[in-house]
Structures are given as C-alpha cells and as structure tokens.
Amino acid sequence: MVKVTLENVSKSFKGGVNAVKNLNLVINDKEFMVLLGPSGCGKTTTLLLIAGVYKPSSGYIYFDDKIVNDLEPKDRNIGMVFQSYALYPHMTIYDNIAFPLRLKKLPKDEIDRKVKQVASMLRIDNLLNRYPRQLSGGQQQRVALARAIVKEPSLFLMDEPLSNLDAKIRVEVRAELKRLQKELGITTIYVTHDQAEALSLADRIAVMNEGTLQQVGSPDELYSRPANTFIASFIGAPAANIIDANIVEEKNVMYFEMLGSRFPMPRDYAEVLKNETKVYFMVRPEDVRIVEGKGFSIFSIEWLGREAFAHVKAPDGTLLRVILPPESKLTIGQEVGVNFNYAKTHVYKSTGELII
Amino acid sequence: MVKAKSLILNMVGLLVALIPLVPIGLLVALAFSESQVQPQGFTTKNFDFLETGTLFANDPVYSKLYPNVYSVALNTFLLAVGNMLIVVLISSMAGYIISRYSFKGRSALLGSFLVIHGVPASILLIALYYMLKSLGLLNTLLGVILVKVAVDTPLGVWVLKGFYDSIPWDIEISSLVDGASRLGAFRRIMLPLVAPGIFAVGLFSFLSGWGEYIFVYTFIQSSKNWTFSMLIRSLVGEMGGINLALIAALSMIYLVPVIILFVVGEKYLVRVTIGGVKG
Hints:
Mean pLDDT of chain B: 87
CATH class of one domain in chain B: Mainly Alpha
Radius of gyration of chain A: 25 Å
CATH topology of the largest domain in chain A: Rossmann fold
Order of helices and strands of chain A: EEEHEEEHHHEHEHEEHHEEEHEEEEEE
CATH class of the largest domain in chain A: Alpha Beta
Helix content of chain A: 25-40%
Order of helices and strands of chain B: HHHHHHHHHHHHH
CATH superfamily of the largest domain in chain A: P-loop containing nucleotide triphosphate hydrolases
Largest sheet of chain B: none
Oligomer: heterodimer
CATH topology of one domain in chain B: MetI-like fold
Number of domains of chain A: 2
Strand order of the largest sheet of chain A: 6-7-8-3-9-10
Number of strands of chain A: 19
Low-confidence stretches of chain A: none
Structural class of chain B: mainly alpha
Shape of chain B: globular
Largest interface: A-B, 29 and 22 residues
Helix content of chain B: over 70%
Distance between the termini of chain A: 38 Å
Radius of gyration of chain B: 23 Å
Low-confidence stretches of chain B: 274-279
Distance between the termini of chain B: 41 Å
Strand content of chain A: 35-45%
Strand content of chain B: under 5%
C-alpha cells in the first residue's frame, strides 16, 4: 500500500507548545504501527500531521518516496477512525458510509454495491437506514470503520478507536480489527495510551513521551528490553518495579544496595557496572522470586485466577510488586526473602538510559 | 397531599399564563368592537381596509393621508426578510471562521461584538442619519435594512459561533480526510449541523426587522416607505381623533406572521435549547 516516513518532523503551536520534537520514524508497507504514550505526549498530533490536518513546522513527511507536506488531507487517500467515532449525525448510516464515495463522484450503482459489501463485511447491513444516535457505541465504531474501509485507502489512521467501548466489546473489536488489517493489508497507524492494546495489536510500537520518540520496536522487544525507565514503567501490567540502587563493592564482590538490603550481582552485571555508583534496578513482577528468608514480608495478596499478585514489603518500607505462581501458599504478614531472575532484569543510569 | 400541591402549582401556572393573555384579549375584543374606543358588540367592519388596502375609504381627505396597507405590509416584509437574509448570510460564515480559525484580534473581535450589542442603538441615530444621507440611502428601505443588519449581526455571529463550537473537531477532520475540501466540509457537514442555530438566528432577525420602529421613524419620511409600526404610530394622536378599534385591527394583522412563525418553528426552537450535535 504505502510506506510512511517521518524525517526530523517537528510541530509547535502558538504559545510555544512543542507537541512533536524532531521525530524520525518509518512505518513500513502493510505494517501495523502503534503510537503509544500517555496523554499529551504528541501522538495524536503526529497522527494529524500524517493526515495532513496539521502541517509540520519543520521536517518532511513522505508517502513512499513522495514528500506530502503540502498535500491536502482529501488528496492523501487516508481512512481515519476516531475515538468519538465522528459519524455525521445528520446522515443515515448508509449516507455516512457512502459519503467518501460520493465525494469521489463514483456512479450510483457502484457506490451502492461497495457500501453494501463493506456493511456486510462488518455486520452492520441491517442498520443502514438508521441514524448514528440510534446505534450503540460498538455499532457506531463499526460504521466508522466501514466508512474508512469503503474508500479503499492506502493508509489507515486510528486515534484511540476502542477507548469509548466497554471492556468486553473492546476485546472483540480489537481482534476483528487485527484480522481485518491483515486481510486488507493496509498500512495502519494506531494511536493509543493503553499499553495492553498496543502489545496485542502492533507489529511494531513507537513509544512517545513529551513529544519525543522514546523507542521503536516489536512488542516483545519493548517488553523485554525497554530502552529507558519511562518505557520500563509504562509498558507491562502490573507495572515493573524500578528501584533506586547503590552499587557497592566489598571484598571483590559487587552488590546492589537497595530495598534496605544487599544483593550480590551476577558476574556479567558486575563487569558493566563497576564504574557506576547510583543506578535504577528494574525487575518485572513475574521475575521476582519469593524464597525462604528474613527481612521481607507479604503485605497483600490478590488472587487473580491464573496467578496471584502480591505486594511485598521490603526492609526499607518499599512495596515490591510480585506475581506469584497460583500454587504458592503464602499468607499476609509472613516473613520471606526475595531473589531476582537476573536474566530478565535491567539496570538503568540515574538519568534513565539502559546500561544492561 | 401531593395531589393538592400539584393542583395549586397548576393553578398558579394557569394564572401566570393568563397574564399575557389579558392585553391580547383586549386587543382582539377591540378589533371586533363596534365602538371606536372600547370593546363593545361585535363587527368585522374594522377589517374593511383589507378589501382594497385603503384606510378611511369613506373619507376623501383622510384616505389620501395614509399609504395603502398592502404596500405597508410589503415594506415591513421586505425589511424583515432583507434583515434576516443578510444577518444569516454573514453570521453563518463569520461564526464558522471565528469558531474554527485562530487569527490576530480574534478575542478582541468577539469582545467588541458583545460591547456593540450592548450599545443602545438610539444613541447612534444622529451619526447614522448623516451616514445614510451621504450615501443617498436616507428615506429608503435599503438604508434601514443596512442599519438593522449592523445592529443584529453581532448577536447572530455570537450565537452561531456557539453552535459551531459545539460540533466536535473530529467530525470536521473526518470529512476532510474523507475527501471534502474545507469549503465542502463547511457546506456538506457544518452547515446542516448548525441548521437549528441558523433557524433561530433567522427567526429572531426576521422578527427584529418586522417589529422595527425607531430606525423607520428616524430614517424614513415618505409614507410610501412606511412599515406597520410607523402606520400604527401615525394613527395615534397626530391626526386628531383616535380610532382605537382600527389600530387594534391593524395590530392583529401585524401580529399574524409572528404567530405563524412561532407555531411553525416551535419544533426547531425547542431543538435550539437542547443544542447542536448529540453523540
């Protein structure tokens, strides 16, 4: 379909807000790219830049090899879906879906055929004579999708399309969306602040924060090797533990001094960290191991079915998030020791960058 | 207890509703009255002017002093419709621009609209008189229409800006991405969505033109350009004896379009208070 390239793209608004700062990103043909970040991180601005609603303050946007900076939205062949659905309230569902085709001045019978085809694909063919206000949120979102699909765009832009749906329908539509995208093979850029949604949908994820791109990679890469503490804390639920640690050496053994305790570090860590003093130690809840010992105590346990989620109180009062296997027989208040699966933990500089 | 309470509330409501009906009732009674000064008996002779449009048809002197009622009605209608069309045309476009574009002096402009709307139009009469005179528009309906438009447009723009504000950006962006030009999005999406607002602004500026008195009185001298308000005013006092019944009959004719508009437009006006776009 189309490959989208952002080259040093910046966008600032009146009043000195720099919504997007020097963004470099390539979205490959047929790829499902998710822009992920907290609200106000510039992801929607980026989407609107690609849509052509905003013009970049500097930098270039390419569709394939063509610079599209000054191309009007209507000439970009984009299908867009919004969180608010953005259906036209004064038109029937049929007219809503037919709207982009009518603007293209297609013959009437062709419009009719295409509208009916896409409506049956999304199972809304029985709603065509209704008005948007008579539909449920899930149905409205299908109509919005149909309207985006019917014009056979070369690029889908989606701005939190599932955020207004209830949890159950959201999972349903999510699966459908992913299947549809693969089936149609249309390059898709999808904006969300929901990391679970991002992990489940994306071929690749671009994490943004405060207008800057933090990391681009597959869901697996982002989860298992976050490039900085922001991504480490943003991706994964329950959130990763990010712990202040001092590095100390005693009798040729290097330790992490943290949580009011000392943990001898494995050799590969020791070699990299010998020049550091203060770092962040990142460990995901599932990589904390509860062992027999003293100093730590179970603060709370939530039974989740497949597993249990616990808070463990460290000697210095910090609460560690821990995922326990379902068969663990721990009780609240019980004294335990703690160890880590060092193959999966990471250490970050005090400024946030990944060391190992 | 609850029943008694609702009964009392209903009675009070009825009473309040009756208050405005008293003068209107008097007006109607007087219009069909045989006496010229007080409601008495029933006759339709006060409406005899409808036949030819001539007032005091039996009096050769008086009948020449007054313009034909139908030409007065036409003048009133032209003033009302002219005012309505221009106000709607300007405010539907200006409201959109002020709502959607940010430009230098935007908030100053908005503020000045409120101030202008607050200025009593009568203090401008002298200045406007000279302006119309130098434009050669004195004693013409067009002159009055332009003045009315200048007075009514700020409120119209303000109201329609509010309607445009209530339409989410997403809908407009969506139409742009769907292939509409900026103008196309305005015409196909935005205008239909603010239709209730346009209806309200149109109705109010029509009525404002229909009921205008002070500008007509000041800027129009020749009786061939009179409107209803002028005609009725001229029947009071100046020509000696007062025929209240005739005034009442004219006033009823004057009132008819207003009532028709509210009956027809009620459905739209109710939608106005609910607001522009829903879900």
